[in-house]
Write a structure and sequence with these properties.
Oligomer: single chain
Shape: elongated
Strand order of the largest sheet: 3-2-5-10-11-1-4
CATH topology of the largest domain: Immunoglobulin-like
Length: 344
């Protein structure tokens, strides 16, 4: 009987000691112990770019994160912006009950004004839509420079029910906006009045769903938001021997578009404003993928290449009559001959 009582007292003493040790560690008596709290930290990175380097800090100014439960309901939402995102080791502190959640992030440049983010408390209600203007024929148009837009998604992330510790999650971002610089180069050396030419890209991609897929039925024409005439004497040492009298003459335009998709029927068109005559019209995606290159094609799919690359430079060469000369097109440093490659 005494043995049993002694055992009982020993167990009680051990339990009390364990509770005391746990309490001491929680109050910070031992620096090497935790602080008896659980933190869920979400970090973001943007290395889906052609340098394969994290450009989150210089590119992203605002982050909105949504946590979605197994029933498709958004149970937690938070936005952070400004200097907080530029700090070393930035992570968003997520205050949510333990469980399994999918995470959707929409990120952007500072105070975006060219798109709206939809939210109705459900996963299906999470979307972004670029603002468009309607023409008399009800067609949709965009003539502004688009704010940078990024998307991130992680399915079924487990937020454990733990006593203490930090649990970190990393969301990779895809950039959804693309910048085009398009040049019309007049090989005769005669200048071109920029008011006589117009640039446009038509695509169905202004409305992006929670999974970053475009919602069909929103065909929009993007117009240049910048255009200028270029007339420069390159001098006798110019290496551009195709321009008579070493003169570069033409028009440069800049456009931005939403996410480019491999299966898109996007079209780039350049035309005259005085008579509506088309100078050049090509299937945009086919042209861009033609110059994907050997190394990129061996490490990226076509869709990954379109997502990783967000800047494009294209040059159309014109004759003295403002005609597209032999269908010659330069994309980045690649020369594409239109008559040998069908792009119309």
């Amino acid at each position: 009987m005494k043995s049993c009582l002694l055992g009982k007292y020993v167990m009680q003493a051990l339990s009390a000691l364990a509770a005391y040790v746990f309490m001491v560690s929680c109050t910070g008596f031992f620096d090497y112990e935790g602080d008896c709290r659980v933190r869920y930290l979400v970090r973001f990175k943007y290395d889906y770019n052609m340098k394969f380097a994290d450009a989150f800090r210089p590119e992203v100014d605002e982050v909105t994160l949504h946590l979605i439960d197994s029933d498709g309901n958004v149970v937690w939402r938070k936005t952070e912006s400004g200097e907080a995102l530029k700090a070393d080791g930035y992570a968003m502190n997520v205050d949510v009950a333990p469980g399994t959640y999918s995470m959707v992030a929409w990120c952007s440049s500072a105070s975006p004004e060219t798109f709206e983010a939809g939210f109705d408390g459900t996963r299906e209600g999470l979307h972004t839509r670029f603002y468009t203007e309607s023409a008399d024929d009800n067609s949709q148009h965009i003539s502004k420079k688009l704010d940078r837009l990024f998307h991130g998604y992680i399915p079924d992330a487990v937020f454990p029910d733990a006593i203490e510790g930090d649990f970190e999650y990393m969301i990779p971002l895809t950039k959804d906006t693309n910048h085009f610089v398009i040049t019309l180069q007049q090989l005769s050396g005669e200048p071109i009045d920029s008011e006589l030419v117009e640039f446009e890209i038509t695509d169905d991609n202004t409305h992006l769903c929670w999974d970053n897929e475009p919602l069909a039925g929103n065909t929009t024409t993007y117009h240049q938001w910048y255009k200028t005439t270029v007339d420069v004497n390159l001098g006798s040492d110019s290496r551009n021997q195709t321009v008579e009298n070493n003169r570069f003459a033409g028009v440069i335009a800049e456009l931005t578009t939403s996410r480019l998709m491999e299966n898109s029927s996007a079209r780039l068109r350049v035309y005259r404003t005085d008579n509506g005559e088309t100078i050049a019209s090509i299937r945009l995606i086919d042209a861009l993928l033609l110059v994907m290159g050997y190394e990129n094609s061996h490490r990226l799919t076509a869709q990954q290449y379109l997502d990783y690359k967000d800047e494009y430079n294209m040059t159309f060469f014109l004759d003295a009559n403002h005609k597209w000369l032999d269908g010659s097109l330069k994309i980045e440093s690649w020369r594409v001959v239109y008559k040998d490659v069908e792009l119309n």
